[in-house]
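hey m, so remember when u said the tokens were messed up on ur end? i reran from scratch. heres the input so u can diff it against urs
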Amino acid sequence: MRDYDDTEEKKQIMKAKQGDQKAYEFLVKKYQHRIYNLCLWMTGAHQAADDLAQDTFIKAYFVLNTFKERKAFYSWIRRIALNITLNFLKTRKREKPLQEYNPKDGKNRPSSDAPFDSLLKKRMRMAFQHAIHSLPSDQKVIYFLRVHENMNYKAIASVLDIPPGTVMSRLNRARNRLKILMTDYL
């Protein structure tokens, strides 16, 4: 893994390690949206994602002294978020979303699609969201890291502390399940 370099972020991390709450607030603001989206993707529920993201930053604050400055802060905090979210999914039944959520919905964007095409796209997005959230959590996290974080197999294996072959097989099972669930739209 490459060493990470972001001078301002490193300064803020050092200050935060010394107890500077404003410095830690800088880190929270920088990464809160990405961590929330990760938690939302994994749980499918806004409230759970909000709580889990908050739990991530609280836990990270208390173990900040374990962070090694030569590594990327986001990778470190993402790992904390993944662990907290996976534990949540293991110990509790998954919550049903209060409302369908799609960050790329574009509700305020005018559409030039015919009404039928627009409806079909909306149904397909909803079906895909449902299909994603029906994946087992071990497959869902790998799918998220590969597709949304654009991580390679080796990096995913490192983050999850599993062999690369396991990453490949779980990703393959996730893709196959998604193909089956999305058959009507393919």
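this time it looks ok to me. The chain has eight helices and no strands. if urs says something different then somethings off w ur setup not the seq
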